[in-house]
## 1
Amino acid sequence: MLSSSSKYAVNAVLYLAVHSSQINKIRAKEIAEAIKLPSPFLAKLLQTLSRENIVSSSKGPTGGFYLTPEAQQRPLLEVVKIIDGTDRLDECVLGLKKCSSEKPCPVHFSVQPLKKTFRKELEENSIASFAEKVKSGETYLFV
Amino acid sequence: MLSSSSKYAVNAVLYLAVHSSQINKIRAKEIAEAIKLPSPFLAKLLQTLSRENIVSSSKGPTGGFYLTPEAQQRPLLEVVKIIDGTDRLDECVLGLKKCSSEKPCPVHFSVQPLKKTFRKELEENSIASFAEKVKSGETYLFV
DNA sequence: TCTTATTAGGACAAAGTAATCCTAAAAGAG
DNA sequence: CTCTTTTAGGATTACTTTGTCCTAATAAGA
């Protein structure tokens, strides 16, 4: 449903949302270690997100990545959109081009609610709100 | 959620369930044309399914693929299992190794029930029952 | 100003998946 | 029995995704 890359990206962004701030930037390497990921690869993902201004960055010693308060208000779906491009989430599970309620594929009605709910969740909740639940121990990022 | 290969396979199997019988075998090429797929690739998938006895085949002129009535009674999930191997369906959407109700990932509770429903649907309904709905025009295989 | 630590970015390598090709084996038809 | 049509299976190719490496740019601190 999501590519590995965008799973990583979501994890990294939530990690930043929980741990970083403009005065407490975090190096790619530290995030990579935390979420157990090859660090040059994560760096690439962060660069992509940085180009789209969803994460902020600063070079040099004491440099690193962080999320501005504004960025934290954006929906988590933005991250997925940037990494996976378009709507991988909207595609028919059986690959039918024009699957719809009018011409449903054989599993349409059992899958459609799943996809819709998931997409809505990512669309309507901000990065910050997901991060809150991690902070409160309601949800987890690793293990 | 499913690989392209297993999407093709599901489509092909349902096509066979709808159109074939032991006395009306269907050539790989015909199925490939129907579901718009490179025919040598589909042939490979059908061979794999045939090795696992979910589709039956016969060589030579008038040869082709078909489903026995017994095969039609097997759950559609079998097809997915054979092609995608293990449980791609059970993995955490965010890629967490040990995502569970005790240590839920940030989207666990919104996605988990729906994944379960989907899996159950594939597990509890036979190929034949999916095929029935296609025959009755309730669901569709192409377009 | 020089050194060092970090991100930026492009080129490249590896792995996995998707797709092709070729030859063999089987089975029906003449 | 031979020819043709079809599946079977292995080897190979192509493509996409994932991951690495190297150099440049930038910023902080000595």
## 2
Amino acid sequence: MPKFLDSLPMILSRSLDGIMPVYRTLFQEHAITDQQWRVMRALWEQKHLTSRQIAEITLLPSPSLVGILDRLEKKGFVGRLRSIEDRRLVYIVPTQAGRELQELMLPKIEQIHDSFTQKVTPEEWGELNRILEKLNEYKTTSEIASGNRV
Amino acid sequence: MPKFLDSLPMILSRSLDGIMPVYRTLFQEHAITDQQWRVMRALWEQKHLTSRQIAEITLLPSPSLVGILDRLEKKGFVGRLRSIEDRRLVYIVPTQAGRELQELMLPKIEQIHDSFTQKVTPEEWGELNRILEKLNEYKTTSEIASGNRV
DNA sequence: GTTTTATTATTAATATGTTAATGATTAATA
DNA sequence: TATTAATCATTAACATATTAATAATAAAAC
């Protein structure tokens, strides 16, 4: 009889709820949101990325990305460039101010990351990644079918 | 040099992104959302809970809960009852329809849960919980200070 | 007992998530 | 090459998250 609080969505949500505020303190100092930073971070060491690529890298849904990019554009951190070869594509390009924001924030982000990884052993960190991946392994067709049938 | 995609927020988000659709298929069959189910699930085997209690159990922010409860009330799954002893409190009570929804969904929810836990060994499941808790352990005052300073 | 402080639920304002649909464009195929 | 199918970004409609503020009530302190 698995208890509600021990379900996978709950333990992952609880973990995220505990982790994000640590990052959010930094984000607020720069007046951007979690999601907006994700986009800027994805553009690190990139000349440009299409909206679609950013969605894949950041895990942000495309429809949400439209507004997120609007606000980043309004803040002057990125620009939009319509591709000439394939006019369906829109390249997202970090501006000078965007690059400066990246340079400013990235070291601190990595510091926070280190502070988390150092709470566990390297073996535990590896285990965490391995177990999570195992939980997310693709299901076989029959498993999906039975999963949808319940 | 920790890579973006290996950061703690990203691996947890990626995991959630992979997990939730499995549940969501069931939720959609009953025309409710993730959050709405969380509330109903919290009320399982409970006569009533205050809004605050539900927020704590479900991890849903109080301001969000107002709307979520509004919609659950409109669907006829819960009722609101103002407490007499302490008139600040509002008791959330599952209706008959709400109880039936719980009875209907809970076994399937537990099936899904089992399908996930069975993807890993019991030891791995324990490890996952232990490592996540370790990552979320309360910081000491000095650690918080240095964390905010970066 | 009245002023102060805490607590509970809620509202407000803004940002994002979710699902489905759309317009513009390109690729694939008959 | 005319048609059909696929792709990309975006819009639309609704639900939720985040932070700060508020109204009502209760508990604490004076």
## 3
Amino acid sequence: MSTKRKTTIQDLADYANVSIGTVDRVIHKRGKVSPDKQKKVEEAIKKLNFNPNLLARTLALGQQFVICSLFPGTTHPNSYWSLPKRGVTEAVVDYRDYGLECHAMEYSLFDELSFVEKADAIIDMNPDGVILAPLFEKESLLFIKKLDEKKIPYVFIDAVIPNQKNLSYIGPDLKGSGHVAGKLMSSMLNSFDDILILNFVKGLENSHINIIEKGFREFFSSSKDLGNGKINSVTVPSIEEADITRELTKYYIKNPETKGVFVTNSRAHIIAKYHAMHELPIKLIGFDMLEANILEMKNGNIDFLISQRPISQGAMAVKTLFEFFVQKKTPAKIRHVPLDIIIKENIDYHIKLQEPVNDKL
Amino acid sequence: MSTKRKTTIQDLADYANVSIGTVDRVIHKRGKVSPDKQKKVEEAIKKLNFNPNLLARTLALGQQFVICSLFPGTTHPNSYWSLPKRGVTEAVVDYRDYGLECHAMEYSLFDELSFVEKADAIIDMNPDGVILAPLFEKESLLFIKKLDEKKIPYVFIDAVIPNQKNLSYIGPDLKGSGHVAGKLMSSMLNSFDDILILNFVKGLENSHINIIEKGFREFFSSSKDLGNGKINSVTVPSIEEADITRELTKYYIKNPETKGVFVTNSRAHIIAKYHAMHELPIKLIGFDMLEANILEMKNGNIDFLISQRPISQGAMAVKTLFEFFVQKKTPAKIRHVPLDIIIKENIDYHIKLQEPVNDKL
DNA sequence: TAAAAAAATGTGTGCCTACACATATTAATG
DNA sequence: CATTAATATGTGTAGGCACACATTTTTTTA
């Protein structure tokens, strides 16, 4: 099956009776072209509908882009942060032939110093772009100040520090995720049922949590028909299962009428197991499709999970930087990922999508 | 920022003390290489971690791929089928430089003959691959028989004819979508509430609808605690608003206790308007993020929409064919898209994702 | 008006691969 | 051992583009 060839610069040159060198100067606005030929070439570009071949261009330029990612380390093999990381890795493969390379750096969520160390290492590496999950706000600010100085573009992922010069933020709308959780909770409960909001503290995640909780409460307060029960929030200053269990027991003994729990991070599975063990018919909503959460959802111990497409986030971040480098595309400053509502009945399709792609060659 | 260059075939040649011609023969298993040099080159590939540059390869081959899509025509500007079409178009742009070209064909959902005509046109065109929405089963079977004869690979999208030689099916799990709808409905209603399943007929969609309805009923029958109310189904043999309204009125007068409606296609917006007009507090679940459905959801007249990522479907189909052509990747035969649960609170994020990408260059 | 300077335009090479073709090496045959 | 056949190996070119450099044309200056 043959079809019309694509227009090349040689075609333009022929049309305008000039050499490809002149065409090239026009295309790249390098000047040194007489006005009449300039016009003629521009006419050719329009008339022949010229689109430069990105492949050939890339090949000719032989450019090399190095980006660094700085994410929290994956404590468990299937923890949340392995997912954005996966998205980055997969996207980098797509752009490998275009000269893109990525160095993945990790810091510990329990150690600000590790963040600083890795950040410095990135600065030393002098990359072309950075993908950053700015969970330590203070340290992140110091880091991006250096990036700004070196004019290295950076993309925030998953979390955001407002009013910075980041190229883009790719992640959830935290308040919106609270709204979604509120709606889902209200659809399962009666308006007078009591609800518990459960926060965990670790590092600087606090500020985020507050916004999620705010959104959740906002949903109920925006309607007089809803949320006539109590909505309490408890913050457990630990992510240890023992600590959580203890706090939970304390709370439930005091508040036996609790009908729904909203866990503002990815650890709903711990609560789910607790509910199952104590045969508590309490509705449960949490975040993220971790292995453990998937299991508890399938066991019927989690009713809704809200997922923020962590893999897509990673892939989008890479794509954003690449398009900025190669095509000078300026992305939207804020790009909220869809908040996927996961239930037992549709979770398998989402898992399938998470699975690595098939064999090569 | 400089970094180690990527390994080229020249590097391999140097390492193995042969010419690039020999390297090429090894890479492409063209034979005519002495065993010792063969081994040496293979060693070089491993040691230098060689990955052929897809860009240079594509450029060198100068290959041209032509695919055709055969979808139902878009009756309204924002109808369902404009979305997969959008996905195809956008993906084709991504692969344009790789020599991919797509001819979009459309048939009328009310005219089998138009399908046959376009199908024949595609056969005449002798494309390298086809993306097909096989909504007319009988005619589709004739079409793919011809495709099989000509060894033209094809991908089913949105709908599937079982047991064919299609490269892949990309679309929803229909029964699963019924399960999801069932779960969502049950979460909103009491177990003894009456439910109406609403089907519309147009063309051969019937068979699909039956499966969706089956899934919906299956969900309720699988639990003794649920679905103790009546679950009736009505099939309206038209998609005209007037006809639908009449049938609905007839039904509601006979069944005033109806508490929930499940519309098995994308026309929930019509029912939504009816409910609003008559002030009926009936829960409503439908499919697909059409403009009209989005509006009614925002108005509060639709509770849940189930979306099957129509844009992704189109994009995935293109990607599948391309990877099959270029990288000989064999896709999974069935790829069910995630069933997105859309509510008023998360619809905006999904709309944003649907919007066309930003400016170029 | 010739020479020098400036501006405009053209040419050639590299990027990496695939493939046709040319050449070199080895094996087989009389 | 010379000759042919078979096999192995090397070379050249195309593909579209960017860029450095060479060459031509025009303008300026003495």
